[in-house]
Design goal:
two-stranded antiparallel sheet
Length: 189
């Protein structure tokens, strides 16, 4: 299915279109779909549809997210140091791929994400301890909504990709065409 999507979008420029699906306090669930502009191109990285769970700080500068493209479920933290810096982030960290558990994670699982947030805030630099502690408090305060948001992400992923099994191990082949293929899928269904 993913291969067919990649072939169909070849040679046409696509831009991501983000659609909000649900909001749970500071946590949003959204979908991103590649939309053709009609402009012909020869070489462009293909865009895949994505289901996303995003926590945003009150000032909008810090985001922690789970992003699912139907093959991989990734967790990341993105930081802009100051407002008005544009859409680009100053620092980003992806923890790599993870898998859906047998059931949606709740407040306890959400609180475990504080480790990645704290690490990225420290590594990014330019964010004083008081401001970093404020972001951590905001993140912790969102924990009661985490289970409902997680269920919404799982529902969206099932709708978009037909299930929750994601790549647990990959085979990478380097050469003229860098190729990554899933060797094993795991997860509930």
């Amino acid at each position: 299915m993913i291969l067919a999507a990649l072939l169909l979008q070849s040679y046409v420029h696509r831009v991501p279109q983000v659609t909000p699906v649900a909001r749970f306090g500071a946590i949003a669930v959204e979908r991103e779909d590649p939309v053709a502009t009609g402009q012909a191109v020869l070489h462009e990285m293909p865009l895949l549809p994505k289901a996303r769970l995003v926590w945003s700080s009150a000032d909008g500068l810090v985001r922690a997210l789970y992003e699912d493209d139907g093959l991989w479920l990734n967790h990341g933290v993105m930081i802009r140091r100051k407002p008005g810096a544009g859409p680009d982030v100053d620092c980003s960290m992806w923890d790599g791929s993870t898998l859906y558990g047998a059931r949606a994670g709740g407040a306890e699982a959400w609180r475990e994400g504080i480790v990645a947030l704290r690490r990225q805030l420290a590594q990014c630099g330019g964010i004083d301890a008081e401001r970093a502690a404020g972001y951590e408090r905001e993140y912790r305060a969102a924990a009661p909504q985490a289970a409902a948001a997680g269920k919404a992400l799982r529902s969206l992923a099932r709708t978009m990709f037909g299930g929750l099994r994601r790549c647990a191990a990959a085979k990478t082949r380097y050469g003229p065409a860098w190729d990554v293929r899933c060797a094993r899928r795991e997860g509930p269904d």
